[in-house]
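Case study 2.
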Amino acid sequence: MRNFSHFACVDWSGAKTERPDGIAVSIIGPEGPPALLSPRPRWSRTDVLAWLLRIAEDRRDMLIGFDLSMALPFLDTGCYFPEWRESPDSAKALWSKVDAMCGDDPHLNATSFLNHQQTSRHFRHGRDYIGDLFTGGIGRLREVERYQRITRQANSASCFNLVGAAQVGKSSLTGMRMLHKLDSAIPVWPFDPVPDQGPVIVEIYTTVAALAAGLPKGRSKVRDRDGLEHALTHLNTPTPARLARYDDHSTDALITASWMKQTAANPGLWNPPAMTEEIAQKEGWTFGVV
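Prediction:
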């Protein structure tokens, strides 16, 4: 597997505001501790997109992980949106459709997609607002999410469930808009081949990194310096200087970037046995799940 000189993690957010509290970006280079990139006042999704375009222009050998689902379940029903004639047939076509339908939504929001007459039928929007095609229970899962649960590597939520602190649907849909607007400037694994040089984007799940950093299941969120130092020490990584605030978005990004640096050279992570070519193109895969 090719080498990367830098590793970055983006803890993403689907909140409607222009500059959500939940976006954090960490980067780690060949030496030293990971560091947070901190624009003022806070990151916006369009700020992250502009940063990615600069990375693409510089052709830096950086592996960039995004904490979001890069597609919706497809393989379970043979379709993203059963009963909708315009349902896309691939992940990249899904990105395009989401962005086109949300063209008037500010800040890369995905409100119009969730409110659409056909797509809204598939989501659990709230306790009293459940689409008639939402499958019930935890909702539909991608193959990688199903596999994570079976192997107990993670406990991923369904993108079709928009309720609760663990919901990832809104952040994933806004992320799909960002990926479409990136317009292939940076390859996205596993949808694109991994080039010999330059940056690459992967989907990550910060809990996988937290468990690898020695944090216990069910208590993988770090909100103090001692917890961060414990996790980074487990990853043989120096702890950065004191942070202004120890929120779990920042610490997730710092820990995950460090974990990526430790594990990215493992060829098995790039060729998970359970990932077929159809899964790769329709649903994608979470880097680090094997």
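Residues 248-263 form the longest helix (16 residues).
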